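Extended Data, panel c. Modelled sequence:
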Amino acid sequence: MRYLFTSWLDYLLIFVPVTVALEVFRADPLLVFLSAGLAIIPLAGLLGRATEHLTTHVGAGIGALLNASLGNAAELIIALVALREGLHDVVKASLTGSILGNILLVLGVSMFAGGLKFERQKFNQTAAEMGASLLLLAAVGLIIPALFHLTAADRGVAIERQLSLVISLVLFAIYIASLVFSLKTHRHLFAGEAHNASDLGEQPWTRGASITVLTVVTCLVALMSEMLVGALESGRLRTNLVLRKSSSASFWWPWWGMRPNIPRR
C-alpha cells in the first residue's frame, strides 16, 4: 500500500473494484464503459511509475527503452482486446490517436517541461537515430497499404489484407531486431548516465517491487480493457458512443493509456 496514493490520480483506483462489481451485476454498458475508462487512468500511471523505479536498477538507457515499451502497454492491451472483438475501426482510430499523441503531445510536453527546469537538455544520439529510423519505417509501413487501396483496390480485398499482414510481420521483425541491437549487441551505446533514485520524488522501490507492480498492474489493465471493450460492443448501438465511424475517436481513445508517457517532473 505504501506504493499507492502518492498522487491524486491513485484515488481513481476505486473504480477497479467498482467496474468489476458493475460487470458482475450486469449494469448498464455505458456505466461499465465509463468506470473501466476511469480505472485504466491510474493503472497506466502506475505502469509508468513502476517502469521509472525499475530504471534506477537497470540504467538510464535500458530504462528509457523499457519506458517506451511498457509505457504504451495500456494502449496495446486495449487495441488487442478491441481487435479480438472485431472493432477494426476503433483500432485504426486508436493507432492514429496514439501516433499523434506520442509525437506531438508527449514529445512536446517533455521538451517544454525539460526546458523549464534545465537550460540545456542532452539526449542519446544513437537512441535518437534508431528511433527516427524506426519511425520512418513505421510510417512507410502505414503508407504502403493506403496507397495500394487508393491505386489498386480492384485487385481484391484478400490481396490487400495479405499485403498488410506481410508488412506487419516485417515491422514486428524490425522491432525485435532493434531490441537485440539495444539490449544485446550494442548495449553499451544505450547505457546512459546513472539514474538518481532521488529524482523520482518519492521513496525508491526495490527491483522486486517494481517488477511485481508491473505484473499485477498489467493484468489489471488487461481485465479493465476486456470490460471496457465488451461494454463498448454491447452498448454501442444503444448509446451515443458510436466509435466505429467517429472521426473524433482517433483523438480521445488512446489518451487513457498515454498517462505514463507524460512527464511528471
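Residues 8-116+194-261 form one domain. This feature is highlighted in the accompanying rendering.
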